[in-house]
Amino acid sequence: MSTLPLFSNMQQEELERLASGATLRRLERGKTIFRAGEPCTEFHVVVLGQVKLFAISPTGVEKVIELCGPSGSFAEAVMFMDAPYVVSAQTLTDVLLLTIDKSTVLAEVEGNSTFALRMLAGLSRRLHGLIKDVEGYALHSGVQRVIGYLLSDGQDDNASVSGAITVSLPVSKAAIASRLSLTPEYFSRVLNELETAGLIRVDKRDIHIVNAERLSGYQPR
Fold first, then answer.
1. What does the pLDDT read at residue 161?
2. Which residues sit opposite 32 in a β-bridge?
3. What is the DSSP-derived secondary structure letter of residue 40?
4. Residue 177 contacts residue 184 (beta carbons within 8 Å)
5. Average pLDDT, integer, range 198-215
6. Superfamily of domain 5-138
7. What is the rounded CA–CA span in Å between residue 175 and residue 154?
8. Closest Cα to residue 109, out of 86, 129, 71, 79?
9. Are 52 and 89 in contact (CB under 8 A)?
10. What is the mean pLDDT of residues 30-42?
11. DSSP state of 92
């Protein structure tokens, strides 16, 4: 637990209190973690692997709301609201998942202001991300959304923002397309367009960005 950002710098006794209400699970790819409408009495942290949060429309179309990778957490807000899950969660790869019971979290929040602030920071980041999503869907074209993903969500934190970058897509192109509110076919067309323009090279899930600055300024015809 101490290797995860949410729990870093915590004292041993604090970690032991959280561990008393925590469960570490290994889940296979395609495993449902929870379904929309089920009661939420815990929150989850991805240790290894990828998890998708998604909703199903009345017509049966799936929309990926969020992709959670290592150190990503989810369901905190719903847990604090005493509400059922509003989305479903499923593993996209084999996953190592840490699940922490609500009563344990509340007890630690009440007695540990640092932990409480970290929980608030995580919720704030998620809210900021949702606001960015709404802005992107309303103001940005599909091409701009794909470029934005490649240059921000998809890139390594230590990568150069102006030179060459290699982005390894963590999950399938279909899942990323849904996350960006695009069809898989349109997502592939955009990648082909960018490759034809000499801005990227596609090698299966590896996207080699020739020059990030040029890609950022690309304007489709």
1. 53
2. 90
3. -
4. yes
5. 92
6. Jelly Rolls (2.60.120.10)
7. 13
8. 79
9. yes
10. 96
11. S
The side-by-side arrangement of strands in the sheet containing 95-101 is 22-27, 95-101, 42-48, 73-74
The token pair at 9 is 């710098």
pLDDT of residue 193: 95
- CA angle 157–162–167, rounded 5-degree value: 50
Which amino acid is located at 129 in the chain? G
5-138 and 141-216: identical CATH topology: no
CA distance 82 to 85: 10
pLDDT at 9 exceeding the cut of 80: no
Q: Residue 157: pLDDT above 60?
A: no
pLDDT of residue 3: 67
pLDDT: which is higher, 132 or 217:
217
Q: Tell me how far apart the alpha carbons of residues 40 and 86 are, in angstroms, rounded to a whole number.
A: 9
What residue ranges do the domains of the chain occupy?
5-138, 141-216
Residue 66: CB partners within 8 Å, gap ≥ 6? 52, 53, 74, 126, 129, 179
Lowest mean pLDDT among 20-34, 111-125, 159-173: 159-173
Note the residue count of the chain: 221
DSSP one-letter code for 181: T
The CATH fold of domain 141-216: Arc Repressor Mutant, subunit A (1.10.10)
